[in-house]
Amino acid sequence: MLRPVVSDFFYFIDTEEGYPFSGSGILASFCRGLMKIGIQNKTIISFDNDAEGTSKQKVLQRAPRLENFAIMRLADPPELHVVAGLGTSGESINGISHSGT
Known about the structure:
alpha+beta; three-stranded antiparallel sheet; 20% strand; elongated
């Protein structure tokens, strides 16, 4: 969308719309299948930056893979590194209580 002049060089498999299987586990299995059949295309596998996506990315990073595969996850937005909250135990930063108790 950002660079339409190069869009013909890429193929996207969107696992959300029109794809019968979704989720990080299925994406990881799909990636392992592509590696086993020795796909020749340069391939980027992108996981969400949630706990499940991070876990599956780490598993695939440790596995032997083809040189034409890049496995990554979405970046963590810096504004979410510090999250203030107010709950039954008082104020907290990143889940750590700062209510002085």
